[in-house]
Amino acid sequence: MSRLFGFAASLFLLGIVALACIGLKQEIQRYTPIDQTVRSIADVSRYPLEKNSTALDSSGNVFFEFRGTENRIYIAYEQIPKRVIQSFIATEDQDFLTHHGIDGKAIARALVTNLKGGGIQEGASTITQQLARNMFLNHDQTYDRKLKELLISYQIEKTLSKEKILELYVNTIYFQNGVYGIETASRYYLGKRASELTLGETALLASIPNNPSLYNPVTKLENTKKRQKWILDKMLEQKNIKHAEHAAAWQEKIEVQQNLPYRSFPGFAAYVRDEFQQLLADSRPELKGKALSKETERLIGEGIVIETALDPSLQAKAEQSLVNRLPYQEVEGAVAVVDHKQHEIIALSGGKKSNYTDFNRAYESRRQPGSAIKPLLVYTPYIDTFKASGGTLINAGPFCNNGYCPQNYGGAVYGRMPLSQALAFSVNTPAVRLLQTTGVKQSFNYLEPFHFGGISTNDHRLPAALGGFEFGFSPLELTSAYSTYASNGIYTAPHAIRSVKSRDGQVLYQWKKSSTPVWRPDTNEKMRALLSMVVSSGTARRASFAGSSYIGGKTGTTNNVNDLWFVGLTDRYTAGVWIGRDQPASIRFVEGIQPQIGIWRDVMSFAHNR
């Protein structure tokens, strides 16, 4: 009987062992390595940090910061002052350099405290855990979030060096008022770079992240000062500083202020941002539509540096001149300035008040050009085709073609006159005859190198000679085209952006400048002489100023005086000015004042005589 029982017991035990083995096999098959588990929560090899991108002017000075929801100026580990690192280690994680992301003693102490309190009353987060939370998690006080935090911290310590962890930590922590990272906090609250911080200032800023609302130095400086003292005490305790340094730092008078991010010349910055997207599309033609927009935003969010040709003093002059010369309600204006020797856009003002998100009339608007189109569409093609000159006579008498009968200004009637006089005084009938003689199609071929965005096939008509277009042109478009007269008849598209670089100085994108011959050099010289006569004796005599060896240009007025233009060039710059209402309506009351010429002269005289 005992044998039978023993046999049965053995079989039973073998069965349990077999089932256990089967279960173990299944568990082994289901087992997921911890590294893989962590990767499913967060990829610690990537740092999803939003960083400010900066735009630099022609002298290399920052004039604008592009930022998203997080205002962050990222700095590398080598740029972080030693005192900043010491202050955070002394107060947040004294064993940071020796632990592996998790402080067991601190966790045990916090666990006892939390069990007694019936909830999460005390944390035990290392710098690595805080980084894990800031980068990949939220701040919910739950055990589930805490477990994920521990797992991610473990992986961070396996993947990154202590230096990299500190670099990321110092750049991710929140300093209240929308400010992230020590560099941004230093500039925002103290108006200086982190590398320039004193010990007292370092301790003051290091106080904020522990409880940003409680230690907000703008509204609760007394609280901040108390924690500053505690941080200095900790640094002294850790032998990071000496007694004399501690005393001096505590006695130091610190003036807290709110320095907003660089936002100078927002209208120009808006154009730079749009031009960057054009540059990206030109460099990477596979990007289109939403993909292009998404990649543009991604790169701007990575903290790139955009070097531009902006001339800040000239930009300021253009903006101020618009305000001074246009005190009239609802009358607006725009200015574009090109350095035609360097083929660069150096100033661009889209209105009397031009904010970053505002409609920018300098490059986003398209208006009828009036007679400002005559040099490009009529006179240059005619002279280039027939080798005419300024002295060539043309019939300026009444003209009619299939019911189209344009009139001269004031209904004036002329006979024959030289081309130079017809252009200088902007007589309409000879301009239409010249377009008809050259041929509408051939004349429009001369405009193709400029890539005007608003020209349609409906514009291929005789009224185009006088500026009758379906959509029209932006001030920047006409200014860029006129710069050809300063380049021997060769067109090179001007750009505001010189280069786009990464934070470490690597060139990411640059325009590939290409030049296109548009008309012959001798045609160009003849046209320069004609444009000069417009200023010396024609409709733009008020544009003259001392300081440039050459001044030439062309005025433009549209029907009912809805638009006033002047586009002209000097020996160094080409500039265009437009005046009008956003909703087209007459501005005849300012026609005699010629504010467009006054603005042009203000800007160009300043450029040549500063």
From TrEMBL:
Residues 333-570 form the Penicillin-binding protein transpeptidase domain. InterPro entries: Beta-lactam/transpept-like (IPR012338), Glyco_trans_51 (IPR001264), Glycosyltr_51/Transpeptidase (IPR050396), Lysozyme-like_dom_sf (IPR023346), PBP_transglycosylase (IPR036950), PCN-bd_Tpept (IPR001460). Pfam families: Transgly (PF00912), Transpeptidase (PF00905). GO terms for molecular function: glycosyltransferase activity. Transmembrane segments: none annotated. Its main location: membrane. It comes from the Bacteria. It is found in: Cell membrane. Keywords: Carboxypeptidase, Cell membrane, Cell shape, Cell wall biogenesis/degradation, Glycosyltransferase, Hydrolase, Membrane, Multifunctional enzyme, Peptidoglycan synthesis, Protease, Transferase. Residues 61-235 form the Glycosyl transferase family domain. Coiled coil: none annotated. The keyword Transport does not apply. Its EC number is 2.4.-.-. It catalyses: [GlcNAc-(1->4)-Mur2Ac(oyl-L-Ala-gamma-D-Glu-L-Lys-D-Ala-D-Ala)](n)-di-trans,octa-cis-undecaprenyl diphosphate + beta-D-GlcNAc-(1->4)-Mur2Ac(oyl-L-Ala-gamma-D-Glu-L-Lys-D-Ala-D-Ala)-di-trans,octa-cis-undecaprenyl diphosphate = [GlcNAc-(1->4)-Mur2Ac(oyl-L-Ala-gamma-D-Glu-L-Lys-D-Ala-D-Ala)](n+1)-di-trans,octa-cis-undecaprenyl diphosphate + di-trans,octa-cis-undecaprenyl diphosphate + H(+); Preferential cleavage: (Ac)2-L-Lys-D-Ala-|-D-Ala. Also transpeptidation of peptidyl-alanyl moieties that are N-acyl substituents of D-alanine. This is Transglycosylase domain-containing protein. It comes from Fictibacillus iocasae. The lineage of its organism: Bacteria, Bacillati, Bacillota, Bacilli, Bacillales.
